[in-house]
Amino acid sequence: MKISRNWLQSYFDKPIPPAGELAELLTLHSFEVEGLEKAGDDDVLDVKILPDRAHYCLSHEGVAREISVLTKQPFEAGRNPPSPQASIDTKPTIKIEDPKFCRRYMGRYVELRPVEKFYVRSSRLLEAIGQRAISPIVDATNLVMYDIGQPLHAFDADKVKGAIQIRAAKEGEKIVLLDGRELTLTSADHVIADDLGPLVVAGAKGGKRAEVSDKTTHLIIESANFEPTAVRRTSARHDIRSESSKRYENELTPELTAEGMDNVSALIKELSPEARFGPIVDVYPNEAKQTTIELDPALIEERLGVKVPLDEAKGILERMNIIISEKGKKWQLTIPFNRLDLAIPEDIVEEIGRIYGYEHVKGILPPKADKPVAVLPMFYLCEKIKNVLVAEGFSEVSLYTLVSKGEIETAHPLAKDKAFARANLTDGMTACVEKNALNADLLGLDAIKIFEIGHVFTSKGESAMLSLGAAQVKKVKGLKSEAILTEAVRSLATALGSDIPAPKAISKGVHSVCEISLDEVLKSFKLPPNVSYADLKFTAASANRYKRFSQYPFIVRDIAVFVPESVQADAVWQSIGKGIENAKAAELLARHSLFDTFKKDGKTSYAFRMVFQSMDRTLTDGEANKIMEKIYAEMKEKGWEVR
Question: Is 151 in contact with 244 (CB distance < 8 Å)?
Fold first, then answer.
């Protein structure tokens, strides 16, 4: 979400920190700030609000409250003018069909007088966060939404016929949205309707029929609260993604509805001082209740592992608008309506910890065990297998447990290709070997050797399995991928002292894959006498370090050169490298290797393979050819013959 620093400043009497300091403060304690940019005389922070804080932080007010808590600067509440009093009796009739979906609905009739001015402050604030100004009334509703997080909607009252009804859509019912798109609704959708039909897809998108225009003289202002799951399903079903639906989907407290109505009414009064307002109609079937949590202060240190001064902990909670009353040694906490993320004592401890600062929490190793730890046979077996296979040149992979087909289906799949629990490791291993084989040149490997230890799920239950995969990429006489697997299984059987029947390998081209039941292996596996986890050498440090890799395709080029017998391979490569430097392509060389040598008629032929890859783009054949031209020129200058 884009957050304006100038907008945030309106919540405080004293200057808040500069944008850069705010970004660091929020990132360390609240949520990640992904970007910072200038917008005229304003600074705009691109804040990543995750679902756990979206209840209250998808708004400038929510972020301002975080800043108040972190900086201890008083938060300026009630900075908006009061809502105008009713001066006419006209009011909308509101009917809620399903109180579980529509938890609160407020409506207000407004007689507009000519809007005397375009509200410059509103348009500038909206433009700073990337939202275009539309019209004074629509901008007013958007301004309040981005300010406090409550979505609002304005109808042209003269186009609304009869009562406003919040109901389920009728199967096949149609609505034309504000963007001109026509939707065919289902009975699972909900709408705001009048006697003629739908006016709005509830919580998601407004309709065209009662759209506010420059000619609008009578308004009905809507401020409502809808059930988040239903809004999300409708938005996904019809591919509607709006700022309103985003907030409803993450759930808002119904108590925010009244604040939204008051604020937008006050703003419209500023835009049209002569406007007349009717009474607010508030249909609130089941009023929200504040959460109360009993907290033993001792739990703070127990959970965090650091002693937070109780006065500091109290101050943090009070700045969050949490009311504290002491009952003996325990605290009775009354949680603000908008903090739907706070439900149990551990939530409170987490809030105290993140504001106090996790840098105060020191890592302390647990005490060593007084007696030897009992070794779990399956765990020991798996780790022993890993050690043996790594020594044989294999690399371990961890593949997806959720796949596109299987025997056990997930109740709520995240995606179509992850709808089942895997019934075997073979399918994933086969695809993995094939992909790695395609990148063998980049990896500098003559053979791909990988393994996975994981669980599979069938109608018979859950099983632990080992899968081995191999691909003999470089042709070697008498050596095939299936033989690699056979040798690996033989080495395992010897190292484990266990009977492992040779599994049947599934071979396709240069690829071979096999699968072994570890539950069966465990039956004949015996732990060594006086065994301990130290035998597995967990404490051995690895010299491996992460190195950034490119996600773009690579290009392979080979070159074979006849040189005098006295010239060594290193000298040939130095000359090839000089050609690459002349092409200004040294940073594109990902790997090189000498893959063939033979002598003939007093000369030696050296064949090199070069792999070129860019970190920021896909290389073209033309770029690779230009590099090779420079290399050929260098060979010609040396008087060497390129084969």
Answer: yes
What is the tens place of the pLDDT at every residue in 281-291? 999 999 999 99
Residue 339, token pair as written in the block = 């903090």
> pLDDT by residue (tens digit) across 510-567?
889 999 999 999 998 988 888 888 888 877 677 888 888 898 999 999 999 998 988 8
* Strand arrangement, sheet containing 33-39: 2-4, 42-47, 33-39
**CB under 8 Å to 460, separation ≥6 — which residues?**
none
Strand 447-458 to 395-396 pairing: parallel
What integer pLDDT is reported at residue 116 of this predicted model?
A: 56
Report CA dihedral (297, 299, 302, 308) to the nearest 10 degrees: -30
Specify the DSSP element, H or E, that contains 633: helix 621-638
The predicted-structure confidence for 569-609, as pLDDT tens digits, reads as follows: 999 999 999 999 999 999 999 999 898 898 888 889 999 99
Q: Range of 577's domain?
A: 555-642
pLDDT band of residue 115 (cuts 50, 70, 90) is low
Q: What is the pLDDT of residue 413?
A: 86
SS3 102: strand
End-to-end CA distance of the chain: 60
What is the distance between the alpha carbons of residues 125 and 41, in angstroms, rounded to a whole number?
A: 11
Percentages helix, strand, coil for the chain (3-state, rounded to 5) are 35, 25, 40
Contact 126, 179 (CB under 8 A): no
Q: Are 498 and 525 in contact (CB under 8 A)?
A: yes
Contact 166, 190 (CB under 8 A): yes
Q: Domain for residue 270, yes or no?
A: yes
Among the listed residues 375, 377, 374, the one whose alpha carbon sits nearest the alpha carbon of residue 524? 377
Q: What is the DSSP letter of 17?
A: P
Query: Which among 457, 477, 476, 456 has a CA at the least distance from the CA of 465?
Result: 456
Residue 28 lies in a domain: yes
pLDDT at 264 over 90: yes
Shared-domain flag, residues 450 and 336: no
- Domain assignment present for residue 193? The answer is yes
Q: Does residue 457 surpass a pLDDT of 90?
A: yes
Contact of 345 with 298, CB cutoff 8 Å: no
Give the Cα separation of 621 and 127 in Å (integer): 45
- Rounded CA-CA distance 310/447 in Å is 62
One-letter amino acid for residue 55 of the chain: H
The reply to whether 496 and 575 lie within a common domain is no
pLDDT, the chain, mean: 91
